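Supplementary Methods S3. Input chains for the assembly prediction are listed below.
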Amino acid sequence: MTTIVRAPAAPPVVDVHGAVVAYGERAVLRGIDLTVRRGEVVAVLGANGSGKSTLIRTVLGLVPVLAGTISLFGVDRGGREMRRQWRRIGYVPQRLGASGGVPATVAEVVASGRLARRGLLRPGRGVDRTAVEEALSAVGLTDRASVPVGTLSGGQQQRTLIARALAAEPELLVLDEPTAGVDSVSQEAFAKALGSFVEGGGTVLLVAHELGPLAPLINRAVVIHDGLVAHDGAVPPPAGYHADPHHDHVHPHAQPDQAGIWNGR
Amino acid sequence: MNLFAYDFMQRALVGVLITGLSAPALGIYLVQRRLALIGDGIGHVALTGVGLGLLTDSSPVITAVIVAAAGAIVVELVRERGKASGDVALALLFYGGISGGVFLATQSDGRSSLLSYLFGSPLTISKEDLLVMALLGGAVLLIAVALRPWLFAICQDEEYARVAGLPVRMLNLLLAVTTALTVTVAMRAVGLLLVSALMVVPVAAAQLVTRGFAATMYAAMVLGVIASGGGLSLAASYDTAPGATIVLVAIAIFAVMAAASALRRASRRRGKGREITALTARELAMSRPGGPGDGEPPDVILQS
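Predicted structure tokens for the full assembly:
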């Protein structure tokens, strides 16, 4: 197995400075700073279209930046050294990619997560199989391992995706809307899996619309509004207040800088 | 009387079996990527290679491999960019390929063999042809089977594969070049116009009854072998065109399996219909994604 060499004074796991991203003419991120340290669980919040999903896709290099610097584990994300760092990151996309109808079992999808730690063409070993089994059990899908993933519910598919990320035994999990449109049973299973990941020393960066059962895990919230960081600190009041997107809300105890966080669009 | 006692029939059989085995093994990745018809396009491009070979009196198989591989790389670069104009670019390439092939071949002495490359001609496979087919087919099989986990990963979720640090670009180009090799292997057996059928139809038939990717791949290879062997026997017995007969047998297998699995599903549904609980119905309703192209999820509030 590869040993991971840690720098004596651990650099931030994620370090973004002045990131600017545009889709065509439209600026989506207009100079964002974001730092995530080892062991933190950071939620990126914001309204639809605020740029929060773009932010984490930018961190992962799936969206090109026009300006700014991004480093992961203290390594320039665009540089050559990054090659050996990707295996430390587990990415959980919003939903299963649209596959072309060829069936794939849950175990096959989860095993593909293990490839990050398996050299090209190297046959799978016992340790790889164990990691896949553990990841499946962490999300409560052991009994579904040989079921085609396309026949699962949305929540179970989402759990398959987190298991895929966990199979690589990452140090940082990046999740894009992990609980969006997921049934409550799966949300609980999801929160449990994430909880034990954090207990084991893992770092989490997630984008959310609603925190739901994940709320107790979050250390810090970063609110993106109109492509800028509008808040970085404690988690804003629970989302239950905001169930109606058109509500005319008054927060007697809201901090001044939180105005416009939830109703801004 | 055994038709396969003749040398040329034995060569034909080995040739089509190599094709039936390797074409679906590679084709499954194209089907998964929703690029089922790309093999057809690469076949069109390969025809220019054939024309070039006929004109210059060199081996049409070798020139076809080179031109098809170059075409496949161009296709991959167009796909990678994800340009909206990609369709038009591909059309230019594919129809340019087929007309280039016809144009070049008709300038050469070998114009009469053009049809055998378009529709296949397994009965005229020579020893040298067979050697080349075995080498190329072996390479295709090796890549498709040994690299299955990695190729599966890039075809199933390319973005995830990139974040996992897999060499996505290299694997994509390898897949493109291997597609070109498959096309050239199949060219002698079923012809460039029918190549894509053997890459796609066995996979489509296999996935009707399988649950996993690896299982689909192996089942498709078995079906590909059955279709090619059976099709060639039929063609020899009834004196029909071998390439077309092989493809028709593959389609017949698909039709039978589709009917069988539809019947099986219908009978299972009748037995199971009442078991759907309120919870699964709710899960289903919640798992429905938002509108197309909508990056954000629907505003479902799950917290009370």
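Chain B touches chain A through 53 residues (CB under 8 Å). The CA atoms of residues 10 and 95 of chain B lie 35 Å apart.
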